[in-house]
Amino acid sequence: MIRYQMYDLCAAVVKQLGSPHNGQWNICFVLTTEMCTLPWEDTLQQSLEAGCDCIQVREKQMATIDFVEHTKQVLNIVAPYQVPVIVNDRVDVMLATGADGVHLGKFDMSIEDARPLCQSHHVIGVTVGSTGEAVEAMSRGADYVGIGAMFASVTKPTVSVGGVELLQRV
């Protein structure tokens, strides 16, 4: 009896989340040039060859004009792989470059303000730190959630860490 309930539950989860055939990514590589030990182009190329099926361009310190040019370069490298490119934080950069979507943090543009600009053909992701935030983000129109922080990071030294337990809860 429980086994069949689990089958039904699994089917419901897959329907909600989608599957790899419905656009669910397996591995999203977050590219920050200053964190690359190799030239960023080589790091990006290696991530694509290793099977990453989404690239998030995350450049917190880059001037807008440089961020636009950088994102265009990323799009050119990624093009043969037909992998979506998501721009971190910046709807304007996403729109200027033709990237596939934007990932919004807690202090970025709201989903409600971003959706009319992005329309339905751009992906909007949101960072969440709890199950409640995930449910809220999805109800407000997010296409996906990024869960974190799970581990300590030099890019966000003051953020509290949820660990793998956070992923399990969300």
Could you characterize the architecture of this molecule?
With 170 residues, the chain is of the alpha/beta class. It is built from 7 helices and 6 strands; from the N terminus they run αβαβαβαβαβαβα. The chain has a 6-stranded parallel sheet. β5, α6 and β6 form a beta-alpha-beta unit. α3 crosses α4. The longest helix has 16 residues. The chain is globular and about 35 Å long. The mean pLDDT is 86.
- Biggest sheet record: 6 strands, parallel
Low-pLDDT regions: none
Side-by-side strand order of the widest sheet: 1-2-3-4-5-6
Q: What letter string, H or E per element, gives the SSE order?
A: HEHEHEHEHEHEH
Question: What's the count of strands?
Answer: 6
Total of DSSP H or I helical runs spanning 4+ residues: 7
Structural class, judged by helices and strands? alpha/beta
Mean pLDDT: 86
User: What fraction of the residues are assigned to beta strands by DSSP?
Assistant: 15-25%
What would you report as the Rg, rounded to the nearest angstrom?
A: 17 Å
For the termini, the CA-CA separation is 26 Å
Looking at the structure, what is the overall shape?
globular
Please estimate the helix content: 40-55%
